[in-house]
Amino acid sequence: MAKKIFIFPYAGGSSYSFYSFREFLRDVFEICDIEYSGHGRRMNEPLLPDVEAISADIVAQIQEFDAKDFVFWGHSFGTTILYETLCQLAVGGFAMPSHVFVSGNSSPAFCPKKEIAIMTDFELKNKLRKLGGMPQTVLDNNELMEIMLPIIRADITANENYNPNLPLRKFDIKFISFFGTKEKLTMQEKRSWRFLSEKVVTKYELSGEHFFIYEHLESVCNIMKISI
């Protein structure tokens, strides 16, 4: 039976955001779609106010799959939700993933600056242009951005307001981290995931900016497959 994979999207993202990865993952993983409330297929549901509430909702979704053998992957904001979900699973005595893949973010040991959430819509759109990951045609579509900006802003606000319980929890899980070579993260931030695992944490760097994963679809997926 294939190992299940749960993917935690970035701010404003949804299960649709990782559709292009399916081709390269499905020979090894059974992809189990999870969706943040107010995103993607759940667009008509309310946005949740904080990381804890989003993660509690994800825990409930995971239980519906009755998963016993599974892995997690989170990108950017998704890594924050992933970490809090791990904490809630552990506290609840639920099954835990065998492997955790994180990309495009430091561990919650580094609190993000509270700066993006308070940007004007104009400033936020410029920030999104610089980060990449969103087609220019979408950014230039005012009607579509009227829908997307409140979702992105809600996710970023939740991320910037997250205060994890200290000390950070450590897990008996293998972590594999990915980063873009041009991301604005210090080496200390990139190495911070090693303090959350009792096992060896493997780190990969691939060329590119924050959304480097889309430039290296097959490579990222191949690394995931050989890591399990």
What's the helix and strand layout?
Layout lengths: L2 E6 L13 H4 L3 E4 L18 H14 L5 E6 L1 H16 L6 E5 L17 H11 L4 H4 L2 H19 L13 E7 L6 H4 L11 E5 L10 H11 L1
Helix pairs in contact: 2-3
Question: What report would you give on this structure?
Answer:
The chain has 228 residues and is an alpha/beta fold. It has a single domain (3-111, 167-227), classed as 3-Layer(aba) Sandwich (Rossmann fold). It has helices at 22-25, 51-64, 77-92, 121-131, 136-139, 142-160, 187-190, 217-227, and strands at 3-8, 29-32, 70-75, 99-103, 174-180, 202-206. A 6-stranded parallel sheet has the order 2-1-3-4-5-6, with helices on both faces. Strand 5 (174-180), helix 7 and strand 6 (202-206) form a beta-alpha-beta unit. Helix 2 packs across helix 3 (77-92). The longest helix is centred in the middle third of the chain and has 19 residues, at 142-160.
